[in-house]
Design goal:
Helices cover 34% and strands 21% of the residues. By secondary structure, it is of the alpha/beta class. The protein has a 6-stranded mixed β-sheet with strand order 13-17-18-16-15-14. Strands 2-1-3-4-5 form a 5-stranded parallel β-sheet, with helices on both faces. The longest helix is centred in the C-terminal third of the chain and has 24 residues, at 341-364.
Length: 434
């Protein structure tokens, strides 16, 4: 039986697609092995959102080629598209597969290496999706992006918006539930654009309601969504649907209006703050997390300070901070007033420190409360982890509880990236949502 291994870089969409790729290899009779063991086929699902991501992608390709010099090393994902645009090669890669054919990758491999088919078994069960967690799984609802922010290469590597049919999404969710998964994360490249290409008036709110209605689903989470796509109808779903987690990841990128305009972001800092205030007013204990891009061309120290001030005003539960990275072919790559790397590093460190402080403040508001979490495997046999309804990560002693069980946990103290808790018999706190 031939063996296949995969390494995934980048976003939740890439992770979802890697799971689909593995499921199709398994359906053909391949044995799935870890990415650090000998295999006949290695797949690297690359990312090109930053120079660092590209470097990690190329390093992974080289490492897998060294593991077995006779193996077929397949390179796919966004860095394949970027390499094609700029004329860059993957010397250690055997076969390059573009994003458009990514999910047919197993067919490409079998055509490229005909001898593999002779080693495959004939009596195989039907394919099933590979789910990585016993509790939570990611479901992609759309692909592609049409925002064309001046710094971002994603529209060039992922193409236009393509929404999946709602029936196809709910069918996959039902299959995930049948495999024991009760927490569903909905993701996409531009997830809030769902339905704009379908012409049937469906939108993301409809998807969330339909997924929450699938029997056996206990929790629905939403991945990153652009500010312009957070509608009042969507907020109403968060406010009223008990199964929808009270967490929104809304990229800010910058709190300075001049920088936002140069980025091609279609909102002002006041628009953004007003949206967050509306969400926090409508949904009790709403956690808002964000992405912030430091060192964009033309960002002054004053602009950086304004971004810090917006972050303080919103009170983010978590901040993902990135340094601006030139992407070939994007308008920002040729803008004047590029910020030097030393300044980027200093601003990044300052923003990360603020994010750490804001995360601690948000967690501190919940210390002493008892909230329900769905238990997942912990760092060792004595502990479990779980997430509160507004997505605070809690680690607590097992105390006889098992993975997959819904546990009432008292939050005791914030410790860096997580909160220490203890399981209790009965929750005394009011639920986050009725």
């Amino acid at each position: 039986m031939p063996r296949v291994a995969i390494e995934t870089l980048g976003c939740k969409v890439n992770q979802y697609e890697s799971d689909q790729i593995l499921a199709r290899f398994a359906a053909e009779g391949f044995e799935i092995v870890s990415a650090d063991t000998p295999a006949d086929v290695y797949v690297v699902n690359t990312c090109s959102v930053t120079q660092v991501a590209e470097a990690k992608s190329r390093k992974a390709v080289r490492r897998m080629a060294r593991l077995n010099p006779r193996a077929t090393v397949v390179v796919t994902g966004c860095d394949v598209e970027m390499a094609r645009r700029v004329g860059r090669a993957f010397p250690s890669g055997t076969l390059l597969v573009p994003n458009a054919r990514k999910l047919d990758l197993v067919r490409e491999v079998l055509q490229f290496v005909p001898g593999l088919r002779e080693r495959l078994k004939d009596d195989l069960a039907p394919a099933h999706t590979v789910y990585r967690s016993r509790v939570r799984t990611v479901i992609k609802v759309q692909d592609g992006c049409d925002m064309f922010c001046s710094y971002c290469s994603v529209p060039y590597t992922r193409g236009p918006v393509k929404s999946r049919p709602l029936a196809e999404i709910t069918s996959e969710v039902a299959a995930a539930v049948a495999s024991g998964h009760r927490e569903i994360v909905l993701t996409g490249v531009l997830v809030g654009s769902y339905g704009t290409d379908l012409g049937d008036e469906l939108d993301l709110a409809d998807v969330m309601l339909a997924v929450a209605a699938v029997p056996g689903v206990e929790s629905v989470l939403l991945s990153s969504i652009e500010p312009v796509h957070v509608s009042q109808r969507l907020l109403a779903v968060f406010a009223r649907e008990r199964k929808v987690c009270s967490h929104l990841h809304i990229p800010l990128q910058s709190g300075d209006d001049h920088v936002l305009r140069a980025m091609g972001r279609p909102y002002t800092s006041d628009d953004y703050v007003a949206l967050c205030c509306s969400a926090q007013a409508q949904v009790p204990d709403m956690a808002i997390t964000t992405d912030i891009l430091v060192g964009f061309p033309g960002e002054t120290e004053e602009a950086h300070r304004r971004t810090m001030a917006v972050a303080e005003t919103v009170g983010f539960a978590r901040m993902h901070v990135f340094r601006y990275s030139r992407r070939p072919g994007t308008p920002a790559a040729d803008m004047p007033d590029q910020v030097d790397e030393k300044t980027k590093a200093a601003r990044s460190q300052e923003m990360v420190a603020l994010g750490r402080e804001l995360r601690q403040r948000f967690a501190a508001r919940h210390i002493g409360r008892v909230l329900e979490v769905m238990a997942e495997p912990g760092p060792d046999d004595q502990h479990l982890v779980g997430y509160t309804p507004n997505y605070i990560r809690v680690v607590f002693p097992t105390a006889g509880h098992e993975v997959g069980e819904t546990v009432s946990v008292r939050l005791l103290r914030a410790l860096g990236d997580w909160v220490e808790g203890e399981a209790v018999g009965v929750a005394y706190d009011v639920p986050l949502k009725a």
